[in-house]
Amino acid sequence: MNITGRQVAAARELLKITRAELATASEIGVSSVYRFEEGLKEPRKATLNAIKTYLERRGIVFTNGDNPGVILDRSRATI
């Protein structure tokens, strides 16, 4: 499943974390998070996987289809 920068920004808002916190936890650069969220550049597959994996471990569920979005399901959180 592909995720969008807007979904990542929404997920961060639900978790109340900064771009810097997401970058550190995902072991990527803050500028990579910024560029992706702002629609300036599509990240490499490994970078995208690192972001997605971390957010999902925090309980984020990405939805796709006609209305891509995110929900926070704390019962799914492993960290």
Structure commentary:
- The protein has 79 residues and is mainly α.
- The protein has one domain: lambda repressor-like DNA-binding domains (434 Repressor (Amino-terminal Domain)).
- It is 51% helix and 10% strand.
- A two-stranded antiparallel sheet has the order 1-2.
- β1 and β2 form a beta hairpin.
- α1 crosses α3 and α2 packs across α4.
- The longest helix is centred in the middle third of the chain and has 13 residues.
- It is globular.
- The two termini are 22 Å apart.
Short description:
The chain is mostly helical. It has one domain (5-76): 434 Repressor (Amino-terminal Domain) (Orthogonal Bundle).
Helices and strands in order:
Elements lengths: L4 H11 L3 H8 L3 H8 L7 H13 L2 E4 L5 E4 L7
Q: Cα distance, first to last residue?
A: 22 Å
Estimate nothing, just give the exact number of structural domains. 1
Major sheet: size, sense and barrel closure? 2 strands, antiparallel
- Specify the structural class: mainly alpha
| CATH topology description | 434 Repressor (Amino-terminal Domain)
Shape: globular
Instruction: Provide the β-strand percentage band.
Output: 5-15%
**Percent in helix:** 40-55%
What are the segments in which pLDDT stays under 50 over at least 5 consecutive residues? none
- Spatial arrangement of strands, main beta sheet: 1-2
How big is the Rg? Answer: 11 Å
- CATH evolutionary superfamily: lambda repressor-like DNA-binding domains
Number of helices: 4
The count of β-strands is 2
- What is the succession of H and E elements? HHHHEE
Q: What top-tier CATH class fits best?
A: Mainly Alpha
- Report the average pLDDT across residues: 95
Name of the CATH architecture: Orthogonal Bundle
